[in-house]
C-alpha cells in the first residue's frame, strides 16, 4: 500500500511543480453541442498542434461525430497520405523533439481530462515574451514552459507587467496579432472545446444512453410496484 502511494505521488510531482498555483484560471466557455465550434477547433488543432503533439488515441474518422464527412476530413484536415481510419500521429521523432524543446511534447488525446478545460484555456492565452527562456517565451500559468507560443501570429506578443506595490502580475498586449483579443479568445475556446471532445468522444452519447437507462428503470419500477400490489392483494 505504501509503495502504491509513493508511486502516485511520484507521478503527480512533475505536474504540481510545473503549474503556477498562484494564477487564477479563467472559465473556458465551451459548448460540447456546438458542432461549428468543434469543427473550427479541430481545424486549429490540426494546423497548429498536430505538428508536434500527437493524438494517438483519436482516429480521424471520429470527427464524423462532430458533423464532418470523410471527404471533408480528407480535404480539410489531412495533409499527408493518412487514411481516414488512422490515428492522429506526427512525423516528428521523440528524440528530435526532446533535443529541440528539452522535453518530448505530450500526447494530447486525453489532455483535457488530465488538466481540465479551464487550465488549457488559461494556459493558451497566457504566453508572454521572455528573452531569458530558450524559446523566447514563458507562460503565466505554466512557468518556465518548454513549449514555444505557436499561436503568436494570431494573438500577438504579450509582455508581463509586475506591480511593485501589490506584487501582482498581468499580461499586456505589446504587439497585436492578426486576430483581435476577442477573436483569439474565441479561437482558443473552440480549440479547447475540441480537446474536451477528443478526450471523451463518447461522452454526449453516454449521457443520452444514461438518461434512457434511468427512464427505463423508472418505468420498470412503476410496473414492478403495481405488479407486486396485484400479487399480494389477497395476502393479509
From TrEMBL:
Domain Cytochrome c: 36-199
Binding site for heme c: 49, 52-53
Co-factor remark: Binds 1 heme c group covalently per subunit.
Transmembrane segments: 209-227
GO cellular component: membrane
Cofactor: heme c
Protein's cellular compartments: Membrane
UniProt KW keywords: Heme, Iron, Membrane, Metal-binding, Signal, Transmembrane, Transmembrane helix
Signal peptide limits: 1-19
Keyword set includes Transcription: no
GO molecular function terms noted in the UniProt entry: electron transfer activity; heme binding; metal ion binding
Pfam families xref list: Cytochrom_C1
Predominant cellular place of this UniProt entry's protein: membrane
PANTHER family: CYTOCHROME C1 (PTHR10266), CYTOCHROME C1, HEME PROTEIN, MITOCHONDRIAL (PTHR10266:SF3)
Protein name: Cytochrome c1
Organism: Candidatus Methylopumilus turicensis
Taxon lineage: Bacteria, Pseudomonadati, Pseudomonadota, Betaproteobacteria, Nitrosomonadales
Gene: petC
